[in-house]
Amino acid sequence: MASGNIAVLNALDTARTQWYHITAIVIAGMGFFTDAYDLFCISTVSKLLGRLYYYNPATNKPGKLPHTINNFVVGVALVGTITGQLVFGWLGDKLGRKKVYGVTLILMVICAICSGLSFGYSAKSVITTLCFFRFWLGFGIGGDYPLSATIMSEYANKKTRGAFIAAVFAMQGVGIIFAGLVSMALSSIFLSNYEGPNFQTNHVLSTEPEADYVWRIVLMLGALPALLTYYWRMKMPETGRYTAIIEGNARQAAIDMGRVLDIEIQEDHDKLSQFKASNNYPLISREFFQRHGLHLIGTMSTWFLLDIAFYSQNLTQKDIFPTMGLTNKDVNVSALREMFETSRAMFVVALLGTFPGYWFTVYFIESMGRFYIQLIGFFMMSVFMLIMGIKYDYLKNEEHKWIFAALYGLTFFFANFGPNSTTFVLPAELFPTRLRSTCHALSAASGKAGAMIGAFVVQSYTLDGDIKKIKHTMIFLAFTNMLGFCCTFLVTETKGRSLEEISGEDGGQNETQMTNKQRVTLPEASWEG
């Protein structure tokens, strides 16, 4: 039974690209905007927190967060994200995407605001409060991963589905840019009014008291974009696929989709009940493993390996920049000046390396396909990281710092024009409707487990700026990327086909049995809706 025979699915697959699709990208992308904003900001904020709350006169050095506390401040949101992904991913399949979609946004707004508050004045109370609310902020962000990806995949037509899902994820890039601008602008405004001497001139006054407001404002502003899109998110109807296939209500699916998209849908009650009956198997079953087992292993392993490298790079760049000469040593600047310089360096790398990669994926994903973009991305990341690791002594010298910066930026570019985008897209397409949100959640949680290795293990090797440790770290990350390259062969190409055809829900060929030859000969899909 072909999915094209079911009117509601066929209408969604063949609908032209409309304004509502673009609106949905922005609404669904706000969780990723907040995710990237928070991840970017905490890297600059953590240095400021160290100078404000952990200065020890006996060391003759600026204050610095102890390794364990630094790892906890950065990593606690990742723990929350894993938990949120699994909980909301499961709820998205059980209760419906729409019913739990607003909860994630409310959590993000409340916890982003509360992240800037402190219940007390001591270092312990400030860090405890921050970590508590960052966990729940991560919980909300985590829920957005499976829900946003699933909603966008189920709304989109089959010719532009990959580009639309990638565009939702590309809101991360927009979040990074805004985080850089906000951090730079706020630190610059405070510097113009309250700049203190550098640390060598005056150990105490080099940490401006007003800096305690800056990090709080930066974190609190992360609530604004999520708050602005809450109303529109609540107005989104349940996806037509969930209403029709899982709830078996073709009439309601037709009404919902007809309200937001310019399409006509006939009811197909008999075909839908037959369709639903033939795909009624649970996640933990022999049938699921035979149909989708390799794909789930593939999406989980590639996302896990990718995030070890991707989050290591993101979280450790603040420690690598001084070694590269892109920022001044901490003893030569005040606390706010250090925040400004770190934000500026991260912003430049993001603008020239990270940001374009997302949109290259959006543009090319329907012509090149997910499979090849992921392979190329993993391979190029591995090559650039290996070069940086082997030649680190040479590249860190003053005269070669721009070569290092270019290589560093290129690894970010190929992460985003590569596996960082495709590992998000593929789990939203490979699995059946009744388990799509859960399988995406498992894949994303696996990725965040890799990110935790980056935050708790890899980052500890770079905190002291030890050249030998940074070299070994880069070579290790090159190796994890090559493993990701190999694991990519467990997944298959999905471009240009309906979700039911890919997952085998339409009763067609089992996707797991597709050969590499079939991957290559899939029909070209154009950008035209």
Automatic annotation (TrEMBL):
GO biological process, one term: phosphate ion transport
Transmembrane helix among keywords: yes
Domain of life: Eukaryota
Entry's transmembrane regions: 69-88, 100-121, 133-152, 164-193, 213-232, 345-365, 371-390, 402-421, 441-461, 473-491
Domain (Major facilitator superfamily (MFS) profile): residue spans on this chain: 24-496
UniProt biased composition (Polar residues): 509-519
Pfam families noted in UniProt: Sugar_tr
Location of the region described as Disordered in the Swiss-Prot/TrEMBL record: 501-529
Reaction(s) the record says it catalyses: phosphate(in) + H(+)(in) = phosphate(out) + H(+)(out)
Chief place of localization: membrane
Family designation: Belongs to the major facilitator superfamily. Phosphate:H(+) symporter (TC 2.A.1.9) family.
UniProt name for this protein: Major facilitator superfamily (MFS) profile domain-containing protein
Organism: Ilex paraguariensis
